[in-house]
Specification:
five-stranded antiparallel sheet; signal; DUF5979 domain-containing protein; four-stranded mixed sheet; Ig-like_fold; 8% helix; mainly beta; DUF5979; Immunoglobulin-like; elongated
Length: 343
């Protein structure tokens, strides 16, 4: 009878293991009526994520979307009054989860107008510190959980919006042993709520600077210098790129290598120093990549850079180098041969 009651209810609760970690969807019918006057609490716990995310301060916005009656039926309120919050069958949990996910996206879309201006303020904002946050004294009802993008040193994190019912029911999450209403979604009641996050790599640039102290004008040839850039990302993936600089006279120049994963360690080696030139600086130099600024973050910014100096070695050879074409192989590595010099 317990399972039948849940299927006949206006909505149901489940732990969506395939979609959300430690996350529940809107509530279920239970053996007893909801005490609509009782206050509720919610605890968010995202432990198990990256240390960079856990060290960030994460604002989680709660918007009350609907009221709930004693029988567990929802009625949309305010900007959400026209949301479809009708019953969803529990016979196919994946389909039900997809339906509630669509409803959450629709609710999220009502938070701003067509120009992106905020038109609905949060009912409450829970700030997660060290991956955890808690809010009490919440009215019963259906809430949209919406978390803005979080920007950290090397990554950005986006969060999937979802709807959660207060109170809720752990029937599916507790091996079908209890269908009591739970007014406190906390670890104490094995009901702490998670957030579904997606990690996105930030990218940065590398500037290779070159100073050519003097130029061999023999035959009027240009002088080409070639650099090998070995990249090791934070997750230990490796990549090699090749770049070059060509001078027609003494002076300073630079080349910028773009879209390198932030936090990567790079080693830059001058693998060809042109005919009649020698290095007056280290052959190889190393640095770490800094993420390019985003609108919400860094104001003053200077990308990672390395510098090389060359001088004429006294020979009268003329010559130049050529930059080869490279492409990624099946292992994600750039395949190349060292550029040839023509004398």
């Amino acid at each position: 009878m317990m399972n039948k009651r849940l299927k006949q209810g206006s909505t149901f609760l489940l732990a969506v293991a395939l979609t959300f970690p430690l996350l529940t969807l809107p509530g279920a019918k239970a053996a007893n009526a909801i005490n609509t006057g009782q206050k509720c609490s919610i605890e968010f716990d995202i432990s198990g994520n990256s240390s960079e995310l856990l060290s960030a301060s994460i604002p989680v916005n709660l918007y009350k979307v609907a009221s709930v009656d004693e029988s567990g039926n929802y009625t949309g309120i305010g900007a959400f009054s026209k949301l479809d919050l009708s019953s969803v069958s529990a016979d196919n949990l994946d389909a039900a989860a997809a339906t509630w996910a669509e409803r959450a996206k629709e609710a999220q879309g009502k938070l701003t107008d067509s120009e992106g201006n905020t038109v609905v303020d949060p009912t409450e904002t829970v700030t997660l510190q060290n991956g955890r946050g808690y809010q009490d004294k919440l009215d019963t009802g259906l809430y949209l959980v919406d978390t803005p993008k979080v920007i950290t040193t090397n990554y950005t994190y986006t969060f999937t919006p979802y709807l959660v019912s207060l109170p809720t029911n752990n029937y599916y999450n507790n091996d079908q042993t209890s269908d009591d209403w739970i007014y406190d979604l906390t670890k104490e009641y094995n009901s702490a709520v998670g957030l579904k996050t997606e990690q996105h790599v930030r990218y940065g640039d590398l500037v290779i600077k070159k100073e050519l102290k003097d130029h061999n004008a023999t035959f009027g040839n240009n002088a080409t210098f070639v650099f090998q850039i070995d990249i090791t990302t934070l997750d230990k993936k490796t990549e090699t790129r090749i770049e070059e600089l060509t001078f027609s006279a003494a002076g300073d120049d630079s080349v910028t290598i773009t879209k390198i994963p932030a936090g990567s360690h790079v080693k830059v080696t001058e693998v060809y120093s042109g005919a009649s030139y020698e290095l007056a600086s280290a052959k190889s130099q190393e640095t770490d990549i800094i993420a390019n600024p985003e609108k919400e973050t860094e104001v003053e910014f200077k990308p990672a850079e390395v510098s090389f100096i060359n001088k004429h070695d006294g020979r009268t050879n003329g010559g130049y180098g050529v930059k080869n074409n490279f492409k990624l192989d099946e292992n994600g590595q750039y395949q190349y041969t060292k550029p040839a010099a023509k004398n």
